[in-house]
Amino acid sequence: MTDDRVYDRLSLLEAQVRYLAERTGIPLPDFGAVGSSALSAAVQAEIAKGNKINAIKLYREETGCSLQTAKSVIDSYGA
Fold this sequence. Notes:
This protein has helices at about 5-25, 30-35, 40-50, 50-65, 65-75. The chain has about 80 residues and is mostly helical.
């Protein structure tokens, strides 16, 4: 597959994902935040215990990111 075909196909897939997210009401995660993050052991432990709010709070303290970004990151890990 050529590079152009790969990028064309990727664009179509991204459009489909956006369409499905809009139709189902499921928000898309902040992929930039997820891609650039590595969760600490403390944040992972809070997620494992089901303490989403504590996980978001800890993540914000560790990274200095906004509440919205922290929530997106934690939500993307299935918390």
